[in-house]
Amino acid sequence: MGGVGTKVRLRVFATLLGAVAVIWLALWYFIPAPPLTITIAAGSKGGAFEQIAYRYRERLAQHHIKLDVRLTGGAADNLKLMQDRGSGIDAAFLFGGQSNAQQSPDLLSLGRITFNPIWVFYRGTETWDRLSQLKGKRIGAFLALAPLQRVLHASGIDADNATLLPRMGLPAVRALKDGEVDVIVILAELNSTQTQSLLHDPTVRLMNLTQAEALTKIVPSLNRLVLPQGVVDLDKNVPASDVNLIATTTAVVVRKTLHPELIYLLAQTLQEEHGGAGVFHRAGEFPTTTDPEFVVADEAREFYKNGPSLLQQYLPFLMINYAKRLAAIIVAAVAIVIPVFTYAPRLYHWLIGARLMKLYRRLRDIETELESQLTPAQVEAIQEKLESIYRAARMLPMRHSDLFINLVTHIRLMRMELASRQAVLRD
Q: What pTM was estimated for this model as a whole?
């Protein structure tokens, strides 16, 4: 008698299994696993960003994520690659003032990561403290940087009164030491090789920009910094006095299409790399939770404010996505199972009732046949029908024995009626 119950259980199980399969496929599509490689545009070789990118690569390798460092012609090329959807670049370093959300709507920021001082080095015995003094000089500079262009223009420097040569990084340093230029304007970290070599060179001087504060008001994307006396070398007192500098900030930008888990991991990498104190900033100032030019990715802002999530604290990076899928499946399964268990008894009783209705309908048809004159062959056919109905009735589960007895009682009454008809036919 357990056939109907078994069928119901099989249907419920098949429904649940199908639901889980559909949910898993949906989650596979809507919560895809993160790729294992990120490509970042790091600027020119020997530039301000190259070494930072390599340090990122070491940190990401600990999470089994490969960082492909793509060297380019500089920050301007970085931006072009990020604006080109087919470039294969996922992230890039940009200078403050280089672009914004209106000009590059497909990009998100992971916050500003550091100050990038604009160093003005020159050779000679004169003391220069204003950019306007560079008129008539040969200037090697990162001319593609928009904030620098605005600073030079505000100081009255242009191609008509100075020789402007595109030089940056190590080529700019060599140009100054070889006498190719009189002054260079470079962007680099304080601890970079080129900056340290110039600061320790007694034949090279660092310009103390006395108009630094005014320049930051004219170009809001710039910041005023002070290089403290002796901070480079206390024993040799380098620099010999406080030096006023101007600086842009560096943003790490990513595509909006980058996997959220990778954005989260990059934010963690940035905080580990830039969260400490430096000569120009206190601990915790970088990376920033805001960006004056781009929208900061939600995942990055969440990480900077609240730290790693529970899953990040206890699971390897590559397992987090699967854990999220599993949690989503459990929630969805619960949402399905509760209604199933609520309505399953009603469905079960409806199925039993529907089965009984069919059997009683067949009995009624037999009762209608019994009202007419029957031949011996018709009597035998009706007997077969009754036996078929009886066998079907025996499939009812034991818990419905009352229904079974009622149906069998009606079957027996019809058997008796049929037996009397047979006796009359024999006589």
A: 0.67
